[in-house]
Design brief:
There is one protein chain. The chain is α+β, with helices and mostly antiparallel strands. Among the domains are: about 120-250 and about 330-360, no CATH class; about 250-325, no CATH class. The protein contains twelve helices and four strands, in the order H-H-H-H-H-E-E-E-H-H-H-H-E-H-H-H. The protein has a four-stranded antiparallel beta sheet. Strand 2 (about 230-235) and strand 3 form a beta hairpin. Helix 3 (about 135-150) packs across helix 5, helix 5 crosses helix 11 (about 345-365) and helix 6 (about 250-275) crosses helix 11 (about 345-365). The longest helix has about 45 residues, at about 50-90. The N and C termini lie far apart (about 175 Å). This is TIGR02453 family protein. It holds the Pfam family DUF2461.
Length: about 375
């Protein structure tokens, strides 16, 4: 007989449902247990758990720190080896005494070490005393050394020699000023700073990069070393010293006045150039001829003269050689032995006296005194011989 299904809600139905669900729960429990076990194995194998991740991070950090320390150790070792090599080289090639003052020189000393370099003292004056009216031989020797070592580092290291030479030159100039005033009363008594030129060169627009002049110099005019007036000039340089005067490269306005004077009254300048003392002392004894005097004067100024005629004048002008000039100067060389002698100021003063008429003539042309009338023009007007 066929089996009847129990009625819903009966005890038989509840028992049957419970019996049917029991196998399903066991299967699910087995699957769950199996999944947990597999997950633990995977976590253990691949370190996905929190503890494994932390452990892995620690191992990675320790490895990285170890690598960094190794690199730092190698770097420090390399530095120490290089430093030891440099110190060895410095010790073998270490400069001596006077070379230590130069910038960039290595002394071979380690950090925290100091080296005391004895700064050179001024050159021993020997048996010759420094006097106001003479020049000391050490001043000339300093200029010789400066010419061979024309750089700031050398002068800084020999500052004592420089200051001694500078003071010697300035006291000499101050004493010489009195003798120049005796020869030309228009020269005022000025302090040394107003007549002495600085030793520093202006290299801003120069192709010559050397920072210092290799000579001492001074100029005396009615306004000192600067101004529009003709001046007397003394130049001290080993084997190239001289005394000069005049106007070197004057402004265009002053140069125009000089050319006009030469064009209209050239005989005035030529008369000064032909004076006996001028020919004998300045022009080395040339004969008393106008042509020779003009040629000697032009030769002393040819360095800055024009190659062609100046604007406004004809090439066949009888005074074209004088009209081409852009400087109106005369000079006389002095030997080193004369400059270092006891009578040097008397020799310079004698030259200044010979040059005084030329300077006075130039000043009358370019800077005439207000209200002053030229006596030469008066005499020429009276004789009717004005040119």
């Amino acid at each position: 007989m066929p089996r009847r299904s129990p009625r819903p809600g009966s005890a038989s139905a509840a028992t049957a449902a419970s019996t049917a669900a029991a196998p399903k729960r066991r299967v699910s429990a087995r699957l769950s247990a199996g999944g947990d076990s597999k997950k633990r194995r995977l976590n253990a194998a691949y370190g996905d758990s929190d503890s494994a991740r932390k452990s892995k991070a620690k191992r990675s950090s320790a490895k990285q720190n170890s690598s960094t320390l190794n690199k730092r150790g190698q770097s420090l070792k390399s530095r120490e080896e290089a430093k030891g090599s440099d110190e060895t080289q410095d010790a073998t090639a270490r400069p001596k005494g006077k070379e230590l003052w130069r910038e960039g020189v290595r002394t071979g000393l380690g950090p925290g070490k100091e080296v005391f370099i004895q700064k050179p003292k001024a050159r021993d004056p020997g048996d010759t005393l420094y006097e106001d009216e003479t020049l000391h031989p050490n001043t000339m020797l300093f200029l010789q050394d400066l010419k061979q070592n024309n750089d700031r580092e050398w002068l800084k290291a020999h500052d004592a020699d420089y200051r001694a030479a500078k003071k010697d030159w300035e006291t000499f100039v101050e004493s010489l000023t009195e003798k120049i005033i005796e020869k030309d009363e228009t020269i005022p008594e000025l302090p040394a700073k107003d007549v002495v030129f600085r030793i520093h060169r202006d290299v801003r627009f120069s192709k010559n990069p050397t920072p210092y002049k290799t000579h001492f110099s001074a100029a005396w005019s009615r306004t000192g070393k600067k101004g529009p007036y003709a001046a007397y000039y003394v130049h001290l340089e080993p084997e190239a010293s001289f005394v000069g005067c005049g106007l070197w490269m004057p402004e265009a306005e002053k140069l125009a006045l000089l050319r006009e004077e030469v064009d209209q009254r050239s005989h005035r300048l030529k008369a000064i150039l032909r004076e006996a003392n001028m020919r004998r002392v300045i022009f080395d004894g040339i004969p008393d001829e106008e042509r020779e005097a003009v040629k000697a004067f032009v030769d002393q100024n040819k360095e800055s003269s024009l190659k062609i005629k100046p604007k406004g004048y004809e090439v066949d002008n009888e005074n074209i050689l004088l009209l081409r000039l852009r400087s109106f100067t005369i000079s006389k060389s002095l030997a080193d032995v004369d400059l270092l002698g006891p009578t040097v100021q008397e020799k310079i003063a004698t030259l200044i006296g010979t040059m005084e008429p030329f300077v006075t003539y130039l000043n009358k042309v370019v800077m005439p005194d207000p209200g002053a009338q030229d006596s030469t023009d008066e005499s020429e007007d009276e004789d009717g011989a004005s040119v």
